[in-house]
C-alpha cells in the first residue's frame, strides 16, 4: 500500500513525465503544415540549385549539420558569427577554414522568410538541408521531424572538445558518439558520409607518409602526389578516390582495401566495428538504411524546443 507521503512524489513524477512527452511531441514531421506548408519544398529546391552549381556542397551541408548537432544539440549555433558576446563555433579548430555551406543555408532561409516571416528556424532549415543534400547526390531520404528553435549563443569550447578528430583512435570515436546518444553502429554509418567530400592535406599527411601496415602502398603513393611532406597544407583530396561526388558504399570498400584517407576512417576497420564496415562494403542498401536511421537520431540530439530559443530572421546573427 502506498502511503500518503508518497502521493505528492508520484504526482510530481507523472507531471515530469507528461512534460517530457509534451516536449518531445513538439518535434513533428508536420510541424509547419499550418504555418508554412511550403517550407520543405522551398528549402529542397534551394539546396538542389546549390548542389547543381557545386556538387561538393552536398558533403559540406551534411557535415555542417553534424558539426551543429554535436555542439549544444541541433540548434544552428554553428551558424552564428563572432560578436562581442558570442565566441563563434566557426572559428573552432574543427571548423576554421574547413566548415562551409553557410551561404547556402542563408539563401534557403531568405527564401523561406519571404514566404513565412519569422516561422521556420535556421536549425530546421539546416536539418532539412542535410537530408536534401543526401538525396541530391543519390543518397537515402528520411522523414525529418521539425520544430527546433535557434540558440541565442554558440560554444566554441565545446566545438573544440566534442567534435571528433581525424586523428582519433577507435575507442575515442566510440566514446565521442556515445556521449551524444549514438552507438557504434550509428558512428560507422555516419562516418559513411565520407563517401562524399574532400579533406585537406595536413589532416592526412602523417598517414600517407607513415609506411604503416594499415595503408595500401599504391594508395599512399597516389595521395603523396597532391600532398607533399612540407607545404601544401590546404591541398584537397577526395575522401573517396573512386566516386567522390556520389553517395554509395565505396567508402567502406576502400576501408577494407586499406584505402581510407583519414586515420579516423581506417580505424573503423579494426576491433569491434570491423564487422560493420565489412557488412556495409557488401550491402549498400543496409548502409543507406542505417545512415538514414543514424541521421534521424543525430538530428534529434538535444533540440531546443517550445519557449526556449528563438526563430532567427537571419542565421548568422541574433535578432
TrEMBL record:
The active site is at residue 67. Substrate binds at residue 164. Its cofactor is heme b; Ca(2+). Binds 1 heme b (iron(II)-protoporphyrin IX) group per subunit. Binds 2 calcium ions per subunit. Keywords: Calcium, Disulfide bond, Glycoprotein, Heme, Hydrogen peroxide, Iron, Metal-binding, Oxidoreductase, Peroxidase, Secreted, Signal. Pfam families: peroxidase (PF00141). Residues 1-25 form the signal peptide. One of its GO terms (cellular component) is extracellular region. The record marks 63 as: Transition state stabilizer. Belongs to the peroxidase family. Ascorbate peroxidase subfamily. Belongs to the peroxidase family. Classical plant (class III) peroxidase subfamily. This is Peroxidase. It comes from Salvia divinorum. The lineage of its organism: Eukaryota, Viridiplantae, Streptophyta, Embryophyta, Tracheophyta.
Amino acid at each position: 500500500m502506498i502511503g500518503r507521503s508518497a502521493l505528492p512524489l508520484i504526482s510530481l513524477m507523472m507531471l515530469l513525465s507528461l512534460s517530457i512527452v509534451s516536449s518531445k511531441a513538439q518535434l513533428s514531421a508536420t510541424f509547419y503544415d499550418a504555418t508554412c506548408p511550403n517550407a520543405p519544398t522551398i528549402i529542397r529546391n534551394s539546396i538542389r540549385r546549390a548542389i547543381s552549381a557545386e556538387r561538393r556542397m552536398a558533403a559540406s551541408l551534411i557535415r555542417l549539420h553534424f558539426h551543429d548537432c554535436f555542439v549544444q544539440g541541433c540548434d544552428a549555433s554553428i551558424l552564428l558569427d563572432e560578436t562581442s558576446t558570442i565566441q563563434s563555433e566557426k572559428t573552432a579548430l574543427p571548423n576554421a577554414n574547413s566548415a562551409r555551406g553557410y551561404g547556402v543555408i542563408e539563401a534557403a532561409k531568405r527564401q523561406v522568410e519571404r514566404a513565412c516571416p519569422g516561422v521556420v528556424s535556421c536549425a530546421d532549415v539546416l536539418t532539412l538541408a542535410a537530408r536534401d543534400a543526401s538525396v541530391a547526390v543519390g543518397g537515402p531520404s528520411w522523414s525529418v521531424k521539425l520544430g527546433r528553435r535557434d540558440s541565442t549563443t554558440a560554444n566554441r569550447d565545446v566545438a573544440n572538445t566534442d567534435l571528433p578528430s581525424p586523428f582519433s583512435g577507435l575507442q575515442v570515436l566510440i566514446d565521442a558518439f556515445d556521449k551524444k546518444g549514438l552507438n557504434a553502429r550509428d558512428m560507422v554509418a555516419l562516418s559513411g558520409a565520407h563517401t562524399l567530400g574532400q579533406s585537406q592535406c595536413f589532416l592526412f599527411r602523417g598517414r600517407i607518409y607513415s609506411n604503416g601496415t594499415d595503408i595500401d602502398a599504391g594508395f599512399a603513393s597516389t595521395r603523396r602526389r597532391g600532398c607533399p611532406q612540407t607545404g601544401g597544407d590546404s591541398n584537397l583530396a577526395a575522401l573517396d578516390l573512386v566516386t567522390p561526388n556520389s553517395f554509395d558504399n565505396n567508402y567502406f570498400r576502400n576501408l577494407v582495401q586499406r584505402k581510407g584517407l583519414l586515420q579516423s576512417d581506417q580505424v573503423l576497420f579494426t576491433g569491434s566495428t570491423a564487422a560493420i564496415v565489412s557488412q556495409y562494403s557488401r550491402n549498400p542498401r543496409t548502409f543507406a538504411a542505417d545512415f538514414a536511421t543514424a541521421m534521424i537520431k543525430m538530428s534529434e540530439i538535444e533540440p531546443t524546443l517550445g519557449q526556449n530559443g528563438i526563430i532567427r530572421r537571419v542565421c548568422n546573427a541574433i535578432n
